[in-house]
Amino acid sequence: MWWRTRLTGLVAASLCTPTFAQLNSVPRWDYSQLDRLSVQAQALIEREQPSAGYALYEEILFLIRVEKGLYSTDQVPYLLEHMQWSKRIGDWDQAMDTGNRLRWLLGRNENQIDNYRRLLLVHIHIPEDMTCIERHSDSGRFIKSASRCEAFRYFMADTYISATEIQQKVATQSNNTEDWEALENLAGLTAEMVFWVDGPPVILEIRGNEFYRTANPEIRQRYQPATWLRLAKTVEGKK
What we know:
Elements: E1 6-7, E2 10-11, H1 20-23, H2 34-46, H3 50-68, H4 76-88, H5 92-106, H6 113-124, H7 147-174, H8 177-194, E3 202-207, E4 210-215, H9 225-238
């Protein structure tokens, strides 16, 4: 069979995990190999070789697109799992890129409310280490200032913004009370996540002998808590 290989002079394909190079030798147009690739990718992941395992997902996705079409929702489970892995290893950019790829894909198919819910749950999953978003109780400023923490805070803000936008779509499609309530709550949480991420919300100025507090004009609208609090208020009025 194609995947058999000689290791240290012995034929041991049935006992050893094939290498990525061997698996990548599958003919790129051979859709019949998809199940086998999926099994082998999972085997690599379970044997603590996730980079090689998830790298095979692009090959799997390619086969699906060729056989089922560019917009096939058969890609969804693989993309969701890859997004979860990206979050686990702290690859925030890849996690958001995969999430955006999924939204693009789902937007080109009808009746995807269940898949939108699955994507939303991946977006709002909280990583175990949340020390980067701990704040001072008096000012609301973040305690840690490392660049790594700054990147993480932008990711948390962006992933909750995406989750809120997805829930808007879900609530609009389902039009049930539970989904509208979930949107209201999620919008409130997003307002908390974006607070101070893009800079101090208020600027203090001294004019003469007086202090003035003005809203920081440099904060982008998506990172303004008021943007999401207004949405929460609007949703509350619809219930």
